[in-house]
Inverse folding.
């Protein structure tokens, strides 16, 4: 038996889309598309009101850094913020669809403003604090005396450029980090007599760049590091972290580079001038710290070779109790970075190969990068479906096998955000359909000789 757990709700998706790089819709499109296929019906546990405390964050991040981000005044619309209409655009789309289709009201309440979202969040905080046996939150609240950040402090913590202090930042951090930590809390300790494997998902997690006292690459709190710490606290010793994001998982690597029990494997683009500029083969200390640097144009074929020749043997050797997969989709064909040409099916197939092979390990799948929201909703939904189809105790194979047809004429199901896919002719696979306006072939700078050298170098480090 496998227990399927997901942290997801309209509330969580609206909070996640406070993050500027989500373009106000990435998480909501994913949640609504998964819901349109009724895939949530096949999960054993759905976490709908995730939350974590300030003290949870300080277990890795420095107190002064957290103090600045968790100021109460940031849980409101900032003077420079004129984005309410942009954040609210999907509410208008949803309302118009329900009116036009004479449908019943949505299954879950959508919040019509960020202030109303905050009101609901405060109810969650109050209930969580009432349930708690400790006074950690109140203690931290009294202890913290944040000051107005000057330019020097903004620069010190990197609250400039791609990581500004945006409106409702504290709520975003507590909800999205809480969603990841809630997964760990659902796992029984490894000492439990009867092992029941769990596969868990938080599409709003995977913030792999943040360091102890420094925001980076749209990442403010490193929920992955906090997750691993929580797993260790529960008694799990060996953890493997596998990062498929286009960018190097530098924050996670740096946090555990001296640990023999935490294995970090990052497959990423490594070219001059590309952020974050780390993750070369020279940094490797196999089998615990492994970087797999690739160049522009990586395709499904080479990804699968790397998976079979490097990633799976390394994980097999580590024999982890828990595998964490950061499934960032910014390497997918059609992403705004336009660097790799992985297909939805290709990346999902590689991830599922790991899930299917290591059946004695719990698996936690987190989101990450991906800057074409229409592609990411498709990818996240497709991978969710693959997991449900294979592992849900509620799934009937006949019911679920054709949910997402492989036919290029397969259409996005009718739902509240269907019209956002109109320019794609509502086709699920338009980015992979030969001859379509969305399908492009990039020049692949990865050569067979380079792949072979990469494999050989990493294998040599293992011996």
């Amino acid at each position: 038996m496998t227990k399927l757990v997901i942290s997801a709700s309209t509330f969580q998706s609206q909070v996640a889309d406070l993050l500027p790089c989500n373009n106000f819709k990435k998480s909501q499109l994913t949640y609504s598309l998964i819901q349109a296929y009724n895939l949530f019906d096949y999960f054993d546990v759905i976490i709908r009101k995730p939350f974590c405390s300030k003290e949870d964050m300080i277990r890795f991040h420095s107190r002064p850094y957290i103090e600045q981000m968790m100021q109460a005044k940031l849980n409101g619309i900032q003077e420079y913020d004129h984005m309410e209409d942009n954040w609210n655009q999907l509410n208008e789309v949803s309302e118009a669809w329900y009116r036009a289709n004479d449908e019943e009201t949505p299954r879950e309440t959508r919040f019509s403003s960020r202030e109303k979202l905050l009101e609901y969040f405060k109810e969650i905080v109050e209930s969580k604090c009432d349930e708690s046996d400790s006074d950690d939150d109140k203690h931290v609240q009294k202890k913290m005396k944040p000051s107005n950040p000057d330019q020097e402090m903004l620069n010190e913590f990197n609250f400039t450029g791609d990581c500004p202090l945006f409106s409702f930042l504290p709520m975003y951090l507590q909800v999205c980090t809480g969603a990841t930590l809630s997964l760990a809390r659902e796992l029984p300790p490894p000492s439990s007599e009867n092992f029941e494997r769990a596969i868990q998902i938080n599409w709003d997690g995977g913030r792999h760049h943040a360091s102890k006292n420094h925001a980076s690459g749209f990442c403010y709190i490193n929920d992955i590091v906090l997750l691993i710490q929580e797993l260790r606290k529960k008694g799990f010793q060996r953890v493997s972290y596998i990062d498929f994001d286009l960018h190097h998982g530098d924050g996670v690597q740096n946090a555990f580079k001296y640990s023999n029990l935490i294995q970090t494997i990052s497959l990423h683009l490594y070219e001059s001038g590309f952020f974050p500029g780390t993750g070369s083969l020279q940094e490797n200390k196999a089998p615990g710290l492994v970087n797999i640097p690739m160049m522009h144009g990586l395709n499904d074929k080479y990804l699968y070779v790397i998976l079979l020749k490097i990633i799976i043997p390394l994980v097999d050797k580590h024999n982890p109790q828990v595998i964490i997969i950061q499934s960032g989709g910014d390497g997918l064909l059609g992403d705004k970075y336009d660097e790799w040409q992985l297909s939805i099916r290709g990346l999902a197939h590689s991830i599922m190969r790991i899930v299917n092979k290591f059946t004695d390990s719990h698996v936690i799948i987190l989101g990450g990068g991906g800057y074409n929201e229409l592609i990411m909703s498709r990818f996240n939904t497709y991978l969710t479906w693959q997991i449900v189809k294979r592992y849900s105790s509620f799934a009937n194979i006949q019911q679920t096998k054709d949910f997402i047809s492989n036919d290029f004429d397969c259409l996005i199901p009718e739902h509240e955000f269907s019209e956002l896919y109109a320019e794609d002719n509502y086709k699920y696979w338009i980015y992979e359909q030969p001859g379509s306006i969305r399908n492009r072939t990039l020049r692949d700078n990865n050569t067979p000789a380079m792949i072979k050298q990469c494999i050989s170098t990493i294998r040599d480090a293992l011996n």
